[in-house]
Request: fold
Amino acid sequence: MNSTLHAKLETEIKKLDSISTAPAILMPLLDILRLPSEKIKVEKVVELISYDGSIAAQCLRLANSPLYGRRQTETVRSAVMALGLERIRSMLFGLCVNRVVPKDKWVIEPDAFWRHSLGCALVTQRMAKKIEYPEPEKAYLAGLLHDLGFLVNSVLYTEDFRECLRRAADQQVALHVIEEQVLGFTHCETGQMLCEHWGLSKELVDAARCHHDVSLLPAAGPLACLVHLSDLLCRVRYLGYGYEEVIAVDLGGDVAWQTLVTTYPALENMDLVRFTLDIDGAMEQIVATVDSVFGGKRIAAPATS
Ligand SMILES: [Fe+2]
Ligand SMILES: [Fe+2]
Reply:
């Protein structure tokens, strides 16, 4: 991307704040997100959630989903307790930014976008625990937010972006490849800019930036690598953007996996077949959770123009 385009996009991304319909609780939540988890006050979170009926309903739905034992959770407070503060703040953030895109600017079903993001969040967290990454909840957040650029492109370049989706579906290739041809930039780049604009941590910015190509950074961190791998796993398991890609996942041969091995040498001896099977087993539960949040709809094909 040349510097003129970069500057233009930066200016436009700043305007997103005024054209979006993000709920009033977004900014206070962003403030909470920046705090270390031990400093977050449960009562403040319960209060913020209670301000917004649909977000409160989503929290209850998730707390009552099979992944959390289908407890009979009927109050926001007990939902927060059942889900845990880290998970609730990640999920809340996702639900809030969902509203950044006005209804007429979605190029796919919003549910499909969030199913992919939530699926990726859950798989990233699962993988993080498997490799004993010390902050699995942060991994969840990185997975949840990795495709924020999709929202930026939907709002700012709706028709061109719709065309990208259509061509990617026709050619069965990854979206970022077509974005580069049609727009001259990718959702990875606009995602990076939005993360920076919102003051998110460098690890989250990096995960957004290089989740389709970890070699973009001289030393991609574990989060970026984990998000890259779980994004691939989601896309080959019906949690992509509603079209089939010709794509093969070879975890051990992936540069992201090899980068992870340099940080976690114990991975070298890991039984990859078992690891993949374990993620596959979890995937079923993950799809069930995602469906329980979004009402059980499978991903619709992208709208064609
Ligand atoms: Fe992506
Ligand atoms: Fe993705």
Notes: Residues 298-305 have pLDDT under 50 and may be disordered.
